[in-house]
Amino acid sequence: MLYLMFLLLLGLVLGLVAVASNPSPFFAALGLVVVAGLGCGLLVGHGASFLSLVLFLIYLGGMLVVFAYSAALAAEPYPESLGSLPVAALMVVYLLGVGVVSSLFWGGWYEACWLAVEELGEFCASRADVAGVAMMYSFGGGMLVVSAWVLLLTLFVVLELTRGLGRGTLRAV
């Protein structure tokens, strides 16, 4: 389990560096899907399987549509890929930054143990994410409505930013 969690964390950091250094929305959207999958895998490893499923489905259902639409509007004839020199140079700079910051906080991390929430209690009758789901729908209903409105606003902001020289996507055809 320790090796799997280490590989998921390593893939998450490398995926985030690839997304941050890539100027093309085509490859960045694919990288974000990979990073979201690895992040949800980390949540599953920590015992929050339902939360990771909900987050991954919301991401694929909502935000990927926004990225695909903005990538279609901001089409480049020759997009930069991960193998090009400026993107590779940015990746090296970001990886060196991650290495410097992680070396500052490195002390004592090798002794940590990754356990699921259920393994910490002696007699756990329910999973930890089941209680979180009940709390999310009972007390967090208003926050779910606000989050839906924020996602809709984000969609319109992205559409406005990527409309280019034309009148935008909401024009009459």
Summarize the structure.
The protein has 6 helices and no strands.
Total beta strands: 0
Please tell me the total number of domains: 2
Biggest sheet overview: none
What best-fitting shape do the alpha-carbon axes yield? flat
| Average pLDDT rating | 76
The radius of gyration is 20 Å
Percent of residues in beta strands: under 5%
Specify the helix fraction band. Answer: 55-70%
Give the termini separation.
Answer: 55 Å
String of helices and strands:
HHHHHH
Number of helices in the DSSP assignment: 6
Spans where pLDDT lies below 50 across 5 or more residues: none
Structural class by sheet pairing and helices: mainly alpha
Note down, in words, how this protein is organized.
The protein is mostly helical and about 170 residues long. It folds into 2 domains: about 120 residues; about 45 residues. Helices cover about 70% and strands about 0% of the residues. The chain is built from 6 helices and no strands. Helix 1 packs antiparallel against helix 2 and helix 3 packs parallel to helix 6. The protein is flat and about 60 Å long. It starts with a helix and ends in a 12-residue tail after the last helix. The model has no long low-confidence stretch (mean pLDDT about 75). This is NADH-ubiquinone oxidoreductase chain 6. Its EC number is 7.1.1.2. It comes from Himantolophus albinares.
